[in-house]
Amino acid sequence: MEYNTIRSKMLMPEYGRNVQRMVEYLMTIEDRAKRLRNAEAIIELMGTLNPHLKQMEDYQHKLWDHLHQMTDFKLDVDAPYPAPTREQVFKKPEVIPYPQSSIKNRHFGKNMDALIQKALKETDPEKKQSFTQIIGYYMKLAYTNWHKEPVHDDMIRSELAELTNGELQYEQGGYRVYFDTRSNFKNNNNNNNNRNRNNNNNRNNNNNNRGGGYGNNNGYNKNRKFNKNKNK
Length: 232
Fold this sequence. Notes:
By secondary structure, this protein is mainly α. Helix content is about 60%, strand content about 0%. It contains nine helices and no strands. α1 packs antiparallel against α2, α2 packs across α3 and α5 runs antiparallel to α6. The chain starts with 15 loop residues before the first helix and ends with a helix. About 10% of the residues have low confidence.
């Protein structure tokens, strides 16, 4: 019995032990042409065992790179693609620097600080005030998401002035139209519902005056029989 502890290390475990043994035999072939033919046969087998690689662009190049890696980059054949090096395959990605900037108001986030800095640098008074109103509206949304309760404009005005040392002054009710739009929409829905309810009541009253209405077939049939007997 052969244990894994005494076997050679599998450099590409996803291809299995049998392919690894074929690669080990490939390295013992001295004839260069024969070695190339065997390498091409192994490449075809590797593609069959891993059909998902065929969905990649230029997957043959990927398979040849894997074959070189399984031979510990010692394979010497006239491959259709240049042989990769160990440095290219095992190259470590560059370290992404972690942002070290401190956020003064963490409950507002870093974007809030960026908006405030941009508003402070603005020279046009109208644009600066527009930035201020947008920042105040964003602060309202942040408070609503965290506290789930209504926020007064006085609180937004005082806190924004404190954050900017009084340079940005939020105008109270700057977005009153937005909130009135939602209330008007709600009022319009209520008016529509009342109008529909009144129409239904009027329709029912008209049907009752006709002797039961179309919704009451018994009353309509009785009136019809009465008129028929009267004509006789």
